[in-house]
# Entry
Amino acid sequence: MISPATVRRNTPLRYRLEAAQCADCGKVFFPARLVCPCGSRKFKAYTLPSEGKVVSHTVIRTAPRGFGDEAPYCMGIVELKDGTRILCQIADCEPERLKVGLPVSLEFRKIQEAGESGVIAYGYKAVPER
# Structure
């Protein structure tokens, strides 16, 4: 079940594609970390680009609870234009069309609705460029 607190806590990374950039070495983390490998704890907000390409993909045929009505669906690792890699669902794409190098853009869409509470979670999905 999705709690309103979880939705609020994840707002920057789900709704604004916001990562954290180390203020000392410049390395970008998505999702954000508390400590950089360089030892720094100083980070600033970093807006990720919304375009990229598929670097790995799979088709989910047996979906986890809450996503059963969506199976089969595509998931993939997308490398954004700045080199950051994210895992996300690839929407509006037939499994046969998926391939490494496929150009995609990220869009915000409904991810799931939590049962009786009715809390709707939104997030990003990759969509092939037309």
Helices lie at 4-9, 11-15. The chain has a mean pLDDT of 86. The first strand starts at residue 18 and ends at 22. Residues 4-128 form one domain.
